[in-house]
From TrEMBL:
This is Glycoside hydrolase N-terminal domain-containing protein. Keywords: Hydrolase. PANTHER family: ALPHA-L-FUCOSIDASE 2. Residues 257-653 form the Glycosyl hydrolase family 95 catalytic domain. Residues 655-713 form the Alpha fucosidase A-like C-terminal domain. The keyword Hydrolase applies. Residues 12-155 form the Glycosyl hydrolase family 95 N-terminal domain.
Amino acid sequence: MTGGPPPSAHRIWDDAPAADWPDAFLTGNGEYGLMVPGDPHAERLVVNHHRFVLPNGTHDARAPHLAALLPRIRELVLTGRRAEAGELLTGGRDLAWTQSYHPGFALTVDAPATTVRDYRRHTDFTTGEVVVRWSGRRRRSFVSRADRLVVTHLDQGDCVVGATGDLPGRPDTVHYDTTAYRHDGLVFLRVRGRYPDVGGAYGFEAVTLVRGDAEPAGDRVLVRGPALLTTALERTATAAWPTAAQQRRLADGPADYPTLLARHVTRHTGPYRRVDLDLAVPAADRDLPVGALLDRQVTAGDRLDPALLERLFHAGRYLLFSASGVLPPRLTGIWTGSWDAAWAGDFTTDANLNLQLAGANVGALPEVTAAHARLVRAQVDHWRDNARAVYGARGLLAPSRTDGEHGHLFHVHPHWPFTAWLAGAHWLLHPLYEHHQVTGEPLGEVAGWLAEVADFFTDVLTDVDGQPALVPSYSPETGPLDGAGRPVPVAVNATMDVAAARHAMTVAAEVTGSQRWTAARDRLPGYRIDARGALAEWAWPGYRPDDDHRHVSHLYPVWPTGEIDPEDTPELAAAAHRALTVRGDEDGSAHGILHRALVAARLGDGPLVGAYLRRIVAADMFFRSLMSAHNPGRVTYNADAAHTLPAVLIEALVQTRPGLLRLLPALPPGLRRGTLRGVTCRGRLTVEELTWDDGRVTARLVAATSRRIRVRSPYGDTDCDLPAGTPVRVTHRR
């Protein structure tokens, strides 16, 4: 198609509107999200807000008080009555869910049907702008980071602008009111959503200012010629609607699209462009519509398509940044077009959230980690409440899921006994500790939280026949098999819990200078290697693993903590690799496969990384927005694959350990040449540029402080002096 922008890996385009909401193109500012289907004559722009969750009665739920039952629970676990222990660990409660994330409403733009020529819609990752063009007409949208507004410019002739809450799955208990009106000479469109009275928020309001030749007409606005729509959103805890404040904010804001876009771009483009990946893709491939890219990979079978992989890398960083601000990304990022989001569209913390965050620190997006820190900071007091209620212990016990309203641990069931998951707080604090490693910024309050995690493990560590043990313990979301071959989740010494305890106590000593955890750390159980030579999921004899399962929590000491490494602990690394290869993937879930890919990268197995990537990209897991699905065949809208894939590629290309930089440690087959720029590594080391082709690798490195490191690649080692702030080039040849 002629007349479009030049080919670029930093945008996607399509030659048809979205057939359904999951294919809508996406933009967001970390608080508001917008979904743009691109229909020329009946557009439905779905508006989202990170804090829109449907009250369901769990807003004030709290952790069960189980401390007095712990002796009995431990006795049941140790005598083989683990299912009974699981019942006690629920506190006698039925399974309760977090408040479900939901869409706000849809802005509607309706116009008389005309012949559509030269249709094209595109998303520009560099600006966050979504543009729809047809027949010489145009609609442009973005969500402003600078002004906290959804912005849409209409240049499509006469049309009618309205709003609707009639989106898929909307419950009858939510009531909408929409009106158009004139105030102080300006035309506004207002939407209010009223929640049921079951505890939690009262409702939400959106006010849209329509600038241009516009006239209210009932609950809609008649527009003649070009118009600018700016929308502000708020959730309210009471019936005191914020209409007046929203009207003032909109009226006082910039009145033209170019000014609004320029203000937004200053906050969006810089972070997005810090990291770049160029896989030497021909311009013709970069100019393919997104549907053609996706179809080509699905039919390519075992060959990774560099054009799609490069685009997914950039799309993943764009979506991750766009979904992070007031909070980190949810299971759906910041977007949904339906009220029936799977798993309540919440923050699932036993795997999904941290996997989505895996590329934030090394991918030079500290804004994403800051959003995660806001979530943690708001909930850490609740984690203390959980530890006291469940274990009578000091420290922090995190829940397996949160809707962003609180961090109390109430989602429990005999099959999912998350009161026995001890590693949660360590897992959720690890990205904040990694941020410190990457940037050198002081840990501040995070140091105290890390110490509290170490205190928690010290308090719950017990003795069984003279041997130290963590009991009860849980490896999400499975357990050792019983006599009938069914997993029973509650167990002793889940490897994830043991690894988290060891790392927590080590890091707490490092960041506080205190040695008060040394004795407890030295008493922790060692890892076990089973009869197959695989790292066991539980450091306890007699357990049979559930090998056909999507989670690989027992590989926690490989990724993220790096305690097990091929050079430093070769025997354990070999056992971890064996554990990886004997594990099935159950239902082909994206988070399970990419978790495996991150572990494979840390273990230096490029072909295995490539195999896992192929299982994602060739399984029809991406919508036309390049948002991903949870399962093959585009089943269940879910951000895990989209947000995690860039981290896998970075880990495959660059890794650091103290005194060591690895270049191309796990290069997937088929990526014969390329350039990666801007990766920020632990130890305050930036790989400004890494270029590789057949038989040659070159890196330009900048260290924040002077040091000597060893640089390793498939073609050799170099001991390299890095003066502070001075770029140094290293080249290895075959």
